[in-house]
User: Fold this.
Amino acid sequence: MNHYDAFFHLGLTDSEKRDLVEYLKSLGDDVPSPVRSASELNAGVALESEDATETSAPAELTLRPSPVVRGGLVNIDLAIADGRGLPGDFQAAVYDIAGRRVAELKPAALDAESGRATLRWDTKDSAGRPIGPGVYFVRAAAPSLNFSQERRLVIR
Assistant:
């Protein structure tokens, strides 16, 4: 994997390289995955992004499960640190590996007391078509909170 990273200048972290290798292994029927549970892969792992300033103080974004089976439901939880609700400038969307927006996410549930919001994604694009297997990114931002986070999601 390192020789591909050096040649194609992918800029992957070691964790991302391991995840990509595991995903590629999972595509073949003959190689069992060493991951015991799907929730272990990428659980709460933040991406290092050059264009997004990531801060964990105002809020925290988590995805469950990852990897997810195509057509499955992805739960995206957002915990806002000070317990206030979602600001008006909050945005969340799913992007493919090429950076194209696949779907825009809207909060499905909001608990004002705890400052938690739940977003759900049915692994379909904005037009309602099922998306293909691959690596996707969930990006959430609220400029008024100085919040921007991105999480990686693998769909089989």
